[in-house]
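[audit] Reproducing an earlier prediction to check determinism. Same input, same settings, fresh worker. If the tokens differ from the archived copy the diff job will pick it up downstream; this log only records the rerun itself.
[audit] input (326 residues):
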Amino acid sequence: MVDAIDRALVHALQLDGRAPYSRIGEVLGVSTQTVARRFNRLRAEAGLRVIGLPDPQVAGRSQWLLRLTAVPHAAQDLAGALSRRSDTSWIKLASGGTEIVSIVHTTQSDRNALLLHDIPRTAGITSVSAHYLLHLYVGGPTAWRGRAKSLTAAQESALRSFPGIPDRGTVRGLNAGDGKLLAGLGADGRATHADLAVRTGWSAATVARRMDELQQSGAIYFDVDIDPAALGFTTSAMLWLSVPPAHLDAVGRALAEHDELGFVAATTGRTNLVAQAICASPNALHTYLTERVGAIEHITAIETVPVLRTVKAAAPFSPGLVGLPV
């Protein structure tokens, strides 16, 4: 069970994933030791962790939402194999355990290996659809609003390290040293400058300076992983929506204001808008769909697919791929 301090800690980390325990404690009105103890308990019991990730555009990556249907006995093994790859994130078992939903990160150099080579030759897959992510309304740097409702406006202001719109003109493309830095932040977004200096071969001062440059420019951001069930959200579903193109942006922006949605994106494909609903119960999901989504004009069709389990959440990009079962 989590209490008000736990929820406030998660909210604080969402605002600044690298905020020192002492600053979080000062804002929350508790001791540094209390913050550290709560963080460690949530890490052990609810999977709490902070992860540093690159902005896909700066990193030269495209993002696809992959939707696979597999025979029942193969789906879990396939999801496990996908989770061990460095080019996947947010892998979910859905629709009775026979459907897998995953985000795939591709580059020109890998020639879309997973989409064009590995998936087609994998046994047990009965259908595949790949949706190019055109625009994120919620997700990535724009975090889920549903878990960020514990702090006051004054507390939020005290915790924000880089307020305002990032200045994307202040950073060059990521280099080899940045790759080592991101590998370290992907393993632990709260790693010390000294630890990151060992990984990169830079001085701690150089690490600190480069991280400030990358954060201020929006080239990297920090995500927070935690099991939603620990916060009382036990029911999740993927929503695949169809919207006339002229109204797509307006509907996407309207959905982005909903606390119940942890992900909203415009995509290619038969449906052109996808979202993930995260609710307290099946009845809460029903109420959300009928009263809030149903009230938005111009949604012409919606498919609701229950999520059974998240196999992999946000993940670092590290060298080396693990093959799929064939």
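[audit] rerun output stored. Observation attached for the diff report: DSSP finds eleven helices and ten strands in the chain.
[audit] end
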